[in-house]
Amino acid sequence: MTTYPELQTFLLSFLPFIILMIFIHFGWLSFILLYGCKDIAFSPYGEYWRQLKSIVICHLLSNKQVKSFRRVREEEIGVTISMLTESCGSIVDLGELMVSLANKITCRTALGRTYDHGSKFTKLLTRFMNMLGVFCVGDYIPWLSWVDRLKILEGNAKTIATQFDDFFDCVLKEHRSMKSRAGPEK
Questions:
Q1: Can you tell me the distance from the alpha carbon of 38 to that of 52, in angstroms, rounded to the nearest whole number?
Q2: How far is Cα 119 from Cα 167, in angstroms, rounded to an integer?
Q3: Residues of the domain holding 101
């Protein structure tokens, strides 16, 4: 920081405004797309967020849980390395390769299987990410929010949220049917 206390105070006085603008930007679209901002990334800091964080750390990111997915990480890294060795002498987009690796590991650990680049899930995920990055005029100039309605943002966001709900319902049904075919655990 600076050695001038007046300047430091002046700069820090803008911090709440900047945080508010960031939250406003992710305002109503993230509210629609992210289940009312009840996830750990978008929920405001408070008692609910602290409880959510402790659940995530105790159950999803525990040492035992992270170790249980070691084989998945090793397999996907092995596949990525073999792809690199096969493409020796040709141009490789490492950024795309790393995103693909992260997606494959995340899908296998969270959803139970990978989804190809052109699959319905990856297309839906791309639409979701694009919708989160859309500029909403009404978030910054409320009396111009009618412009957002002309762009059909709310309808598109609701459609994407519904499609994600349907997708996750299918994933849950798939997992339940696999468990019922496997029989009761001992």
A1: 9
A2: 12
A3: 70-114
Q: Taking Cα atoms as reference points, which of 75, 73, 168, 175 lies closest to residue 125?
A: 168
Domain assignment of residue 93, yes or no: yes
Give yes or no for a contact between 37 and 31, defined as CB atoms under 8 angstroms apart: yes
CB 39 within 8 A of CB 33: no
**Alpha-carbon distance 40 to 122, whole Å?**
22
Please give the Cα distance from 69 to 158 (Å, whole number). Answer: 33
Interior angle at CA 110, CA 107 and CA 112, nearest 5: 70
d(CA 31, CA 146): 18
pTM: 0.70
* 74-111 pLDDT per residue, tens: 999 999 999 999 988 899 888 888 988 988 998 898 88
| 139 within a domain of the structure (yes/no) | no
**Any domain includes 129:** no
